[in-house]
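The following block was generated as part of the benchmark described in Methods. Ligand: FE2/S2 (inorganic) cluster.
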Amino acid sequence: MSDTQASQWQPVCSMQTLQASQFVEFSLATVAQGEDTLPLTGFIFLDGATPRAYLNRCPHMGVELNWMPGRFMDSDNLFLQCSTHGALFKPGDGECIAGPCQGDALSALDIRQTEETLEVRLPE
Ligand code: FES
C-alpha cells in the first residue's frame, strides 16, 4: 500500500452515535489489493470505553462475521462471533480463541477521533 493510501482516513460515525453494546457497520472507500477487489466492510464498537474497529471478514473463509445487521457478539456477550462456523474472537485485539481459525485474528483498523467524528483507515 502506498503512503497516500495509508494516510486515507474515512469518517464512519460520530462519537455520540456509538453507544455501549452497539455495532456500527460501514463500507470502506478503499478496495482490497490483488485478487480481492470487492469493497470491504467493517464495524466499530465500544470495548468498555475504547472504540475498536475491524474489517468485517472472518480469517477462516473471508466471509462477513454477522448474519444480522449489528449482531456480532456471542450469546454470552463476551466474544465477537462468526455466524458461519462459530469462531470466537477477543473484542480487544481480534484474536481468534476458538473455532477453525484459532490463533489467527481479525484485521484491526486504526481509529482516530477528529472533534466528534470517529475515523478509520485500512491496515497497511
Ligand atoms: S467462516 Fe468464520 S468460522 Fe468459518
